[in-house]
Amino acid sequence: MFRTNYSAHLIPVANVAILLFLSATIxxxxxxxxxxxxxxxxxxxxxxxxxxxRPIGIDAPRPRLSWRLDDDRPGAQQxxxxxxxxxxxxxxxxxxxxxxxxxxxxxxxxRVTYKGKTLQPFTRYFxxxxxxxxxxxxxxxxxxxxxxxxxxxxxxxxGDWITDTRNVELxxxxxxxxEFKIDRxxxxxxxxxxxxxxxxxxxxxxxxxxRVLDPTYTRFDRRNLYVTYDVTSQLxxxxxxxxxxxxxxxYNHQSTAVWYFHEAPWRARPKFCLDLRITYDDxxxxxxxxxxxxxxxxxPVIFNSIYTAEHYDARLEQSGWAEPGFxxxxxxxxxxxxxxxxxxxxxxxxxxxxxxxxxxxxxRRINDTVWLADFGRNISGICRLRISGEAxxxxxxxxxERLDENDRADLSNIDVHYRPTDDSDPFQTxxxxxxxKGTETFQPxxxxxxxxxxxVSADRPFTLQAENLTALFLHSDVPPTGRIHSxxxxxxxxxxxxxxxxxxxxxxxxxxxPQREKNGWTGDxxxxxxxxxxxxxGITVYEKWLDDHRDEQxxxxxLPAIIPTSGWGYHWANGPDWTSTIAIIPWNLYLFxxxxxxxxxxxxxxxxxxxxxxxxxxxGLTNWGLGDWVPVKSKAPVELTSSAYYFVDxxxxxxxxRLLDKTEDHQKxxxxxxxxxxxxxxxxxxxxxxxxxxxxxxxxxxxxxWGIVPEHLRSKVAARLAERVKADDxxxxxxxxxxxxxxxxxxxxxxADLAYRVAAQETYPSWGWWIVNGATTLFENWPIDAESxxxxxxxxxxxxxxxxxxxxxxxxxxxxxxxxxxxxxxxNFVEGLDSFxxxxxxxxxxxxxxxxxxxxQITYEVxxxxxxxxxxxxxxxxxLVNGQLLKEARGIExxxxxxxxxxxxxxxxxxAFSW
Length: 915
Fold this sequence. Notes:
The structure is a single chain. By secondary structure, this protein is of the alpha+beta class. The protein has five domains: 2-149, Immunoglobulin-like (Sandwich), CATH 2.60.40.10; 157-304 and 313-349, Galactose-binding domain-like (Jelly Rolls, Sandwich), CATH 2.60.120.260; 353-473, Sandwich (Jelly Rolls); 482-808, Glycosyltransferase (Alpha/alpha barrel); 824-914, Maltose phosphorylase, domain 3. 22% of the residues lie in helices and 30% in strands. Strands 21, 22, 26, 27, 28, 29, 32, 33, 34 and 35 form a ten-stranded mixed β-sheet that branches. A six-stranded antiparallel β-sheet has the order 1-50-43-42-41-36. Strands 3, 5, 6, 7, 9 and 10 form a six-stranded mixed β-sheet that branches. Strand 39 and strand 40 (822-825) form a beta hairpin. Helix 12 (697-705) packs antiparallel against helix 13. The protein starts with a strand and ends with a strand. Residues 1-38 and 880-884 have low confidence and may be disordered.
């Protein structure tokens, strides 16, 4: 049986063009806005600027403006748009854009790059868009939206960079304050704050916003970020005060570990630069800036380390320090200091926030002075403690992922790289000293940890109630864009654990783990990038991280293994199997968003990187790299896996050159990619047996995954891989690189049932083995009791989540129509799974691929969002109606039939197939 709700009649393309022409010439009147015909069923929605909602303080001279078509009708399509940008919201609402009017554009595009008058700094711009539907009728314009520019260039800054001392060993964090007076009605007020280190901002004694750990980590001597705050409502008539508390962050790293961040070339006492720009109702502007007239003193934050913890002595609190009228007579003058770099740019990304508050799940008293709290889940973040007691009582909050044999907090799996010089800085252990003034609250400002358990101890007896301790899940607050649900609870648990690990390792850059390192390991990140993009709207974080790549790349093209870095990683672990992030990340952004800008911005960097590998690898093969990191038991040759990524990079570079109309480069790097492919196959492939190397899982799956296997041998190599997996008892025998390839190589080459059985295993070694043993995040090693590499919150094995979208849901971006303009759908209705649903919210809206099985039939349902299409691959039997092959239905075109598969082209809409 076949059924569809598609009923709309599609207008031929030629007719659409005529209707658009008539609309453009007749309906645009004096106001510039279309006097649209009633068409309330469609409208542009989800307006974004630089992928953010109403951003303020952006520096982009040509920001990207995007929207979606809100139209539930089958076959809904945008055939034209008109966009207005101006400084007058009422005029823009009426169809007058004094900065930019695109005119009616025949186009299905739903993202444009601003090309109007030069944008001015400190200016709020309003914009809206009107679209035409597939019937040529104009839809109502979208509600007016806005974006606001920031500094736009370095010369706009008026403030000085200030600090309190040059002593990098001084431990207490410094306060800074300044008072000023307001004597007229305020129209708007913005704070622009750049810092080397971390900060907390207060105006008139109140914290501003809910963001934390700003600004995000960069290579401080090459790029610094500033954040813009709307503080209009915080100002008051008369006297006002502004206060800043500075933390060390990665800038002044006082903890010691193997990564040598305490020896970073940029290291100095934290500093900041601030401009408070006040616009009065009369149009006048006053700027209150950081300078020599600010005052400073030490705060109760007596120690803070992004790597270890935070120590706070409440006895040193100065009530009202950021309020007007505070007596700062004993505070000292600040020091004016040079800027950390000459590149101060806007931080334009989803900020770090506390997205969840977790209550204590189990609270256990160890003795009179020790309590143990279990939050039931491994997270990244901090704890809030509310407690009372005598002045001077010292509490310690030790954060751990696991417990020892005595059920006490055990740090031995995560403190292995810490090299303390004394006992004053215990790992992942906050210290809170009471003031004795009633119930007190402690919540770290400049640190986060990875933990499930918190051991709270004190130097004297105390009682702890569960409600007095709360865990806060911190991470970059990227909006969710995907969901998975199946009839297999273990599979669902793996998906949730992958999401938890992904978020726990996103802090303005992707990290490996939130406790032991917090490093931006490149290999971990590109392996998990599709998982991130299927599940979250992560482009803003990835684009920022690509800025970090450009800052860290050496002139010869070499990149470090961790980014950002203080200098570690340029000579180990940075081969193409890891630092291919420079090519893979922008390419995946292009596929998922259809946005060419990341490839344009990084093209020269990709080229320099590929040229560097070529310089080292004249014969097309390279052994530069770590190889299949943390394998189960077998490791493929480094030369094979690194050369495969060399091939990937050259291929991406060639494709990008074609997209950017760089013909010579396209030809050059296409030839290079073919040379690498040939070299790999000549050395490692046995045409007769279909084996690569010794026939290990990684040796066979990596060439299949990345398109290295000759087309006529794909089925043979896939069959050898299936045989090998079965010989391994249908369990994985791979490391990091193999986890990216193994499931995809099977499911995309005729062995989806086997891939599912491998993915759903609940015995060692497998992802499910972790889940049935209580894991809520992904681990760093396959054995639960491994002696090394045993972080319990790593994202590096997280590709399995993306595989669920691809293999079971069948959702793929189309390289020829990226950004899910056309969705490739290749679902596999695998044996052993009764139902599955995947949903992904792409640039055009929500894509849903859903199936269920009963004894009698399989039902498959799919939703394609407006203004997009899909190419669907289904078993031939799904199109039998009364014994006859369906030739065509409304909204569906049967394009071809191959290998017992029918290929359908679907218009936007919802469909259901049963067979």
